[in-house]
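Q: Convert this sequence to structure tokens.
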Amino acid sequence: MLRYRCLVLDHDDTTVDSTRTVNYPQFQEALARFRPNMSMSLEEYMLHCFDPGFYEMCERVLHYTPQEMDAHFQMWKEYHKTHRPKFFPGIPGLIRRQRAEGGYVCVVSHSSDDVILGAYAQANVPRPDLIFGAEQPPERRKPDPWPLHEIMRRLGLTASDLLVVDDMPLGSSMAHSAGVRFAAAGWCGMLPQIEAHMRQCADLFFEDVPSFYEYLFG
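A:
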């Protein structure tokens, strides 16, 4: 019997190792184009994505216009066509096991649907049952609980059937607003200050994928 009928997974730095290998290098290219007089280290970038969040960083720190934000997003999508992050070891097998035993796998992410589907297809990982990505209007993106309520409505599930897995506090806020348990993906290599916060806001914290797999299926 499955511990959770539905795993609700974040994408970046939860299932795929993307910040260090793809998103930050692409961000550096965009910064050189839109804010050539600014610089941001990887650690600074990760902290800004943690608080206030990527979109908020673009607004409050980079002071993007809506046109610049759209152009950056298109650059990011083009970059992902030739630079796809790899799944963390063990995640593809975990997803396959969840699906093989009759469970659901959904994705709630700030990445776009085509980027998410491209990563799953390249790794030969079963396509998610539902995806709620960057195409959703801002008011329907996490931390708003709308994606979870929609998952429950479409799949006929209750809050106790779901587990949200994320590496950022937006996932925790979304989960707890909907009465859903939240697990922190500690295997992504969090900065110490981020890890300390995530341990406090999570119902469950997993330092590596094998321990998460054992919790789900052991």
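The mean pLDDT is 96.
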